[in-house]
Amino acid sequence: MDDKQIHVLIADDQELVRSGYRAILGTYSDIDVIGAASDGDEAVRMAQLMRPDVVLMDVRMPGKDGISATRDIAHNPLLSGTHILVLTTFDVDRYVYDALEAGASGFLLKDADPDEIVHAIRVVAAGDALIQPSVMRRLVETFAATGKRAVSLGNAESNALLATLTDREREILTLVARGLSNELISKELFISPATVKTHLARIMSKTDSHDRAQLVVFAYESGLVCPGTL
User: Fold this and answer.
1) What is the CATH number of domain 156-221?
2) Comma-separated ranges of CATH 3.40.50.2300 domains in the chain
3) Rounded to whole angstroms, how far apart are CA atoms 211 and 207?
4) Edge to edge, what strands does the sheet with 31-37 contain?
5) pLDDT tens-digit profile of 71-122?
6) What's the mean pLDDT in 8-33?
7) Is the pLDDT of residue 149 over 50?
8) Which of 9, 66, 95, 157 has the most CB atoms lying inside 10 A of its own CB?
9) In whole numbers, what is the pLDDT of the chain averaged over residues?
10) What are the Cα distances from residue 150, in Å, to 32, 88, 133, 141, 221?
11) The CATH number of 6-143 is which of 3.30.70.940, 3.30.750.24, 3.40.30.10, 3.40.50.2300?
C-alpha cells in the first residue's frame, strides 16, 4: 500500500451505505478503503488487524455499537495512529458527547457531500479534530434543552486544571470549543498558526487532553464554555 495514501476502514451496518462510501472514496487518489465492517465488534477486530489511519464509524449498529467500538479502538495503545470519524445524523446528536468522551476525533453528517467527506477524513488523519459547526450547534442545543449531561461547574478537578491556563490559553480554548481551526484562530487573535499550535500543545498538557476533541469536552465540563454562549 502507498504510504502517502490515507487508509480508511468503514464501519456501518447497512451494506448500501458501506458500498456507497467505498465507491465515493475510491474516486480520490489519496484515499484507500482497506476494509468494511458491519458492526462494532468487527470494526474493532479489523482495526487491530489492518491499522487504518481513519475509521468512518456509524453509531447505531447491532452488537457492539459505534460508541463502544470507538472507545475500544481509541484506548488501544497499539492503535494510537488510528483516528475515529463518527457518522451522525440530527437524531443521534445525543451520542455525540459520548463519542467525544470515548475518543472520537471528529463528526460528519451522513448527508455530507463527497468533498466534505474527504476533507473530514484528511483533517482527522492529520491528527486534528473536526466538528462541523452545524453538529456543534445541535450539540450545544441538546445540552441546553435536555440537561442530559450537566456541565460540571462545581467539579473541583476541572476547576483546578482550568486555573492553570493563562488568559490567552483560555481564549484559544474557547475558540477551539467553537469549532475554529488553527488558521481561523490565528486570524481571530492576530497571531501566527504556529503560535496557536504551541498554545494548544500547552493547553493539552495542562488539561491532560489527548487531542482537540478532548479539549472541547474539557471546555464544557469545566464551565469555560456553556450552552448558549456560542
Assistant:
1) 1.10.10.10
2) 6-143
3) 11
4) 31-37, 6-11, 54-58, 83-88, 106-109, 130-131
5) 999 989 899 899 999 887 755 556 777 787 788 888 887 888 899 889 989 9
6) 94
7) no
8) 66
9) 83
10) 40, 22, 21, 13, 8
11) 3.40.50.2300
